[in-house]
């Protein structure tokens, strides 16, 4: 273990730059990578959150400080960007603060220091074998051994990432250039803002073992050739972990990118937001609903019912989904009025659903009795005896039901205009729900909407809808 850390280096050479809690975690992970505890690492992070500053500026300088004989290569989508990282690393090494921390790591500052190389794309460490290369995607590294390879944003933008030709060329370059420059003890860091499911990270995951990185304890038991993948979501939607203990719905860097600002960005293009900001790429062409789900600005004065449909969670990781709605008397459209969508235990959700039924003046609630739903229905009924509770068993195939009724969901159901901010996880799971059923982790929201359109069709309240 070294006496220094990347965080200490950052404070020394960038004293005005503060570090958020997630930066400290990020730097701690990079420390362990630099010290050899992690050999293959993937980090995904939203734009403008400091990923490149840590991985492609501080880390190379730190690595050369720890080991002046190390050979490092930085690659990006263009040689100009990779060279920019290289120059920033050189400027760090030139500082007196760096020299005090790592006195044995020096680079050429004058012609009197002989034939050592110092250019924008290649710098050598004086009196040592260490050097830093920078190269653009698909650029050559002929004859150069690489001890540590840092791959930072190999796609310039969505247009590049959405091009099968660019993705294929990137993969070919990675296998024929990057991998061939490495040896048994080489380390790899891939740091991306994701753009597409089949980008380099996605393709690696198809061929090699990639493990979700949630706790430092995983390092000791990781298989030798496996990757650790640390993903920082811009808005926390997954469960809290030791490496990212944020509660759900909290922004990663609220002082710079607030949850309110991020939700506005999500509304503009949900699939793109999931790629870039959440690290969950989903091809738009494979979405079942996508951006086709429709909103309303007001509910008709005349409605035929105020009802609720609830599906309790199948397992501890699944969501209870309870949706209140009204049906327009003239248009037959289903207007969603309120939602409870949570993984909280039943002792909490029973009261939350009961309160929602009261707040929405719901007259009748339909609750699936599968997986403890009957007990849930009875408990809710005891809290709100004024609501008629109907529980029933759903035995039809879920996949077939969701796919068959997807057009009815799109054409008949309407959501409040602000539903993305009112129920962000519900919105996320619906707008990114895949047509390929097994590609989805959660089916709860889609299942409930399917149940609503099936129920209203059976109840005979579906007039002809002009689409």
Q: Mean pLDDT score, rounded?
A: 90
Question: Judging by the overall fold, what is the CATH architecture of the largest domain?
Answer: 3-Layer(aba) Sandwich
CATH class wording of the largest domain: Alpha Beta
N-to-C CA distance: 67 Å
Q: What is the spatial order of strands in the main beta sheet? A: 3-4-2-5-6-1-8-7
Question: How would you sum up this structure, described in words?
Answer:
There is one protein chain. By secondary structure, the protein is an alpha/beta fold. It has 2 domains: 271 residues, Rossmann fold; 169 residues, Nucleotidyltransferase, domain 5 (2-Layer Sandwich), CATH 3.30.420.240. It is built from 18 helices and 15 strands. Strands 3-4-2-5-6-1-8-7 form an 8-stranded mixed β-sheet, with helices on both faces. The chain has a 7-stranded mixed β-sheet with strand order 9-15-12-11-10-13-14, sandwiched between helices. Helix 2 packs parallel to helix 3, helix 3 packs across helix 4 and helix 10 packs across helix 11. The protein is elongated and about 90 Å long. The C terminus is likely disordered.
Describe the structure in brief.
This protein is α/β, with parallel strands linked by helices and 467 residues long.
